[in-house]
Amino acid sequence: MKIVITGASGFVGQNLQNYLSAHASYDIITVGRSPQPNTPNYLSFAELLQTNDASADAIVHLAGKAHDLRNVSDPSEYFKVNYELTKQLFDKFLLSSAGKFIYVSSVKAVADLPQGTLTEDTVPAPKTAYGQSKLKAEEYLRAQTLPGNKQLYILRPCMIHGPGNKGNLNLLASVVKKNIPYPFGAFENQRSFLSIDNLCYIIQEILAKNIPSGTYNVADDQSLSTNELIALISQSFQKHTKIWNINKSMVRFIANVGDKLGLPVNNEMLQKLTTDYVVSNKKLLSVLDKPLPLSSTEGLLKTLRSIH
């Protein structure tokens, strides 16, 4: 099976290539931004869009502009990359002989902070340019007439983690590793996570089997509270769990002061660590008809052990 993977040099792309190579026989064509002459099985986006070679069986579109947590990116860049590029690639797919198009979107295309559990029926209302650009791409894909011999999959992953990924999980782990107590234990929340192993498994299942076209949320089976996550991190480092249950009103006061003085402890940090973001994967599991390889805890522990 010949697979085209865009964004192949990124965290998900590299893991997906390794996973597919280890689990089945795939002929993988990687796609990136710049031309790389004499690089086997590689095309730039310009070369891919211009080529007449339509022999691929499937396209996995991972490339995109990631969410800028510092909020310094030009909003138009999100739409140029996440929407316009996706539109061009999907138009190319419709004219090709490829049968499957997998677009990796994001739960942020639906909500920055969902009210209750996020499902595929949740009415999208993204607030950021990142989420809005992902949603616009989704809407374009779903609006096109899909020939009977083609299938479209829109995947909405929540926070992806895995060995080698440098994200918020690593920052939290570094705090625990330094024996700094977690001060927000009085807040009870639930958040969903997604192991890179589970994501790669899901993509391979879609490639290999006749899964119905559709939009699917992607998350591990169970959500965890930040307090539970701190306990897991402590376990992975073989340290005693240190959680302080400081009064919520006092914490919010400190966060407000942090906003005014530009301190690390501020409302943005408090929101990330203490609010709910639960994603339902029931629709996806119903079509896969089997459990995911790793539980939430197993996936997180695998990632955390790689940080040592």
TrEMBL record:
* SUPFAM superfamilies reported for this sequence: NAD(P)-binding Rossmann-fold domains
Domain NAD-dependent epimerase/dehydratase per the UniProt entry, residue ranges: 3-219
Give the source's domain of life in one word: Bacteria
Membrane-spanning parts: none
Q: Which InterPro entries match?
A: Epimerase_deHydtase (IPR001509), Lipid_A_modif_metabolic_enz (IPR050177), NAD(P)-bd_dom_sf (IPR036291)
Q: What is this protein called?
A: Nucleoside-diphosphate-sugar epimerase
- What is the species listed in this Swiss-Prot or TrEMBL entry? Chitinophaga niabensis
